[in-house]
Amino acid sequence: MPWDDFATRHEEIWIDLSSGELFCMPAYPSQHQIEYVKSLLKPITCELGLRAFERDVVENAVQKLVDRAYMDPLLRSSLGLQGTETFESHTNLGTTDDPISEPLEHMSLGSGSAGPRVGVWPEAAGGPQGPSQSEGQGQWGGPVLTSDGQKVPALAIEYKAPHKLSVDEAITGLESEIQPERDVINKDGQCFAFTARRLTAAVVTQLFSYMIGKGIQYGY
C-alpha cells in the first residue's frame, strides 16, 4: 500500500530530531569503521545472507540512532519510544521452507495461512499460537520494543534473497495496484510483468498475513 504522507511524516521527525539536545553529537560509526564493515560484506545467496547484510549495513546504524534518541527524554516522548529497542529474528532463520513457492491461490489475506505463527511474542498476538515451524515460514525480523519486561514487535521485515525476488521484479510488480483475485489468482501468464506481479503479490500477502497475526501496523 502506498504511504502517501511519508514525506510529511519524515519532515516532522527531522524537526523533532533537530530540536533535541543530542542532535549535534555524532552517533554514526566513523568512516574507517564503515570501510571495515564494507570489507567484510559477502554476496547475498540466501535469506540468512540477506539477514546478515541488513544487520551489518542497516540495523546496527539504526540501533545506534534509536539508542541515542532514547537518551533524550523529550525526544523519546515525541518519537513515541515507549521502551528500549533491539533488532531480533522473529523466527528460526535456518528453515528452508518458503511459502513464496506455493501457489498464490493457497494464500489468504485474512486467515494468516501464508505467514508464520511461531508464538515468539504470544502477548502481542492476542490469541493462540498457530502452525508449527514444520508448516512453513518466511524469513522475518525487525525492531522489538521492550517495556516492563514485555517484548512487542514494532515492525515486520521480510527477507527475500535476490534469486527469489529480484529488484527488477519488485519494481515491476509494484508499478501499479495489484488486486490478487482480479490480476493474479487463477491467472496464467508467461511474460516478465505477470511473473513479477505474481511474485510481488505473494510476498506482500505473506508479510501482511504475518503482520495481522502479530498485531503489527508497519512492515516492509
UniProtKB/TrEMBL annotation:
Residues 88-145 are annotated as: Disordered. It comes from the Eukaryota. This is Uncharacterized protein. It comes from Tolypocladium ophioglossoides (strain CBS 100239).
